[in-house]
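DM from R.C. (forwarded with permission)

"hey, sorry to bug you on a friday — could you get me a structure for this? deadline for the figure draft is monday and I only need the backbone to look sensible"
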Amino acid sequence: MSRIHPSDQSRCHGHSLLKDHNDSRRPLHDHDKHRPLLPPPSVLTVWKRSSMTFQGTDGFTVFDPHGTLVFRVDNYSRKNGYGLVLMDGVGNALLSLKPKMLSMQYQWNAYMGEDGCEKTRVFSMRSPSVLFHSTGRKHVAEIFMGAQLGRHHQNTPNFKIEGSFRSRDCKIVKASTGEVVAKIFRKRVNNTTILLSDDVFSLVVQPGFDSHLIMAFVIVLDRISSKPFSPVMCS
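My reply, with the result:
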């Protein structure tokens, strides 16, 4: 069985997502020497399976380019209503993800730590359609940072997700500028054109954006995309 975590080849593939000014093959001019070097993007391999191997769990296991476990989600109940917790590789809680009670837009909220409260809300994500997930819209989800969603003076999303997550072909962009923040795509077996199953995919996060925050977007997107609309209760 092939390794599912990134290899050097997959890391190079991720570099192709960079803008032209990050291309190492471009000739170096004198004025370039005074520009700060941008770090490379974070290339993660996401496995839609819990790190816990016993029956009755599901979740996510995320590796860095060196095969080190960096994030994990262990869901013991398989029920969205209980929420999820994004942890680092050693099990420290980073963000708690909870569906909004009776959400008519299939909304999830993220909070700091394991037992977050409204004062610690980090972001909210919702489907842009009230009644349908597939309405021909270009974007499939909207992300509002902080606790701004629901306030009358601010209902403009900070980020949008475009494409098809079910096909593992989508991107996260800034709503105001269209700048690509992260991309999701199918992962290939090293040095081949063979695609791995869709429960293993690549996540490339551009410099300047927190990988754990982007991973939280992906987790909620998976829950939003997993089934047609239905109201969600949350304890």
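R.C.: lifesaver. Confidence is low (pLDDT under 50) at residues 7-28, 130-136, 228-235.
me: no worries. Helices lie at 8-15, 211-225.
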